[in-house]
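Input/output pair, single chain:
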Amino acid sequence: MSQILCPKCGAKTEKLYKNTCRECFLKTFTLAELPLVLHANTCAKCGARFDRNKWRDVGDLDEIVIRTVEDALLIHKEADDVEIYVNPHQMTPHFYKVRVEVDAMVEGESLHQDLRAEVRVIRGACDRCSRMAGGYFEGILQIRATNRLPTAEEIDSCKIICADMVDRLWKKGDRLAFITNSSDSKDGADLYLGSCNACRHICKSISNELGGSFTESATLHSHKEGKDIYRMTYAMRLPEFMSGDIILFKG
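Output:
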């Protein structure tokens, strides 16, 4: 195979990489870059990660560290078939040392690069946990029955439906889906929830499983930055008649 001269160093080469030989090309080419020190902001209570101005439920601390590294890692735009291996090593509860290996194809050549970084874990309180601790709620779900008092079994069933729906909505991304407080009275029960969206889903789920209907009403709570802030009340009415009731009808 014929050889050509590298325009930069004059060495003989069988192939040019960006108009230079392989050695000259690799001296100026950086496959990947990674800051030496990274910070992972997490919630001390629930483990959520603060990323791109938003709290996100990710997983355990190792996974948070790996995602922090992956988000900060810069790969050259000309790299193809990129494979990344992130190996975190926990030194203390708040400090990780991470090794990153990057393999890729560039200009038909297989390249490999090792990188090192430190990840410092900063623990705080996420929006969800802060609001829960502060008693925040947007909606009140009132469990009642039409022309009668709901039974203890019905109230327990409604609370189970509520807890299940809150858990499902939270897993789907509604971070305000939580129960702040609950109180029982002679007329039924009141549940205080962080999300109006959760209130509506719970009422629909109760209606589907136990029957009944619900209404919504708004009450002016406060003003913020020139806007009216309302709290919603969801009146859930269970059916007047229960399964097994005997109805006397005069015909």
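DSSP finds five helices and 15 strands in the chain. The chain has a mean pLDDT of 87.
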